[in-house]
Amino acid sequence: MPVVKRVAKLGASKPKLHKPSSEVSLPTQLNEPPTEFSDFVTFLFGEKGVGKTSLAAQFESAIINQWEPGRRHLKILQVPQKGEQPLNWERYKEYQALAIESDDIKTIVNDTVDRAYRSCLEHVCREAGFKHPNEAKDFGQTWKAVNDEFEDTMNLIGLSGKTPVFISHAKYKEVEDALTRTKTEMFVPTCTDKAFEYLRAAADFVFCLTMRGNERVIAIRRTDTVFASCGVPDTFLCPDTGKPLAEIPMGGSNKEAYRNLCLGFENKLRGRILETPQEEQEEETNKPKKKLVLKKK
Predict the structure, then answer these.
(1) What is the pTM of this model?
(2) pLDDT over 60 (residue 280)
(3) Which of 4, 118, 159, 294 is at a distance of 20 to 30 A from 106, taking alpha carbons?
(4) How far apart are CA 98 and CA 80, in angstroms?
């Protein structure tokens, strides 16, 4: 049977525009981006014991949602408090609501986002009568419910005017170069692909905390071996040359590490620089990546 193609008639009526309500209007002024480092969404990941939680606690008026049990050795503001039950998704949402309402809290940290996402998954599946989304066999609807619940809950932090900070551990993962098809090991977060997908979209900065010899450093931009992302233009540039920084020193304390992040954001700190221009190495594009080489400054 021949295939009949639909052909638009000449002079056919065009779709009618939706009539806007009186409450909707177009902007007349350009958006003013935040000017302080503490106003942006940050995702920290790295090896165990490198100082991720301690650094996150240095952010302005920070409270740590501690998903990993037994973390009592740090002098930080955290929940659950001593004697309270470990976090689950329902309890977390209660703590988050209290933190959002508090005038004393500016930054809300999730440590780790790996466990937060797992708790969200367990909650949604329990409500639906499953142990795992794959058991539902519903063409991905349960997976969608998990991701929607996680994203909607985490988005409430930023929408409230508070600053979200997320923490994950790190692992080596085999990745393939899109241009050369060669495979290399890259240092990446341990969170699930779905959580990472959300964080890549939501976070302005993805920083990797790692060791360079005996020195603790913060990777600012992606290289061929370490994943990182600087999503705010004209920040973390070398004050002498204006070239993008690949990494900066953490210094001798967590207070110094946070101070270095603020100085780096203001382009007032020296570090290791990339030889490629910033616009050529941004990982969010779908173009094949050029190999990036670190150069000591």
Answers:
(1) 0.84
(2) no
(3) 118
(4) 13
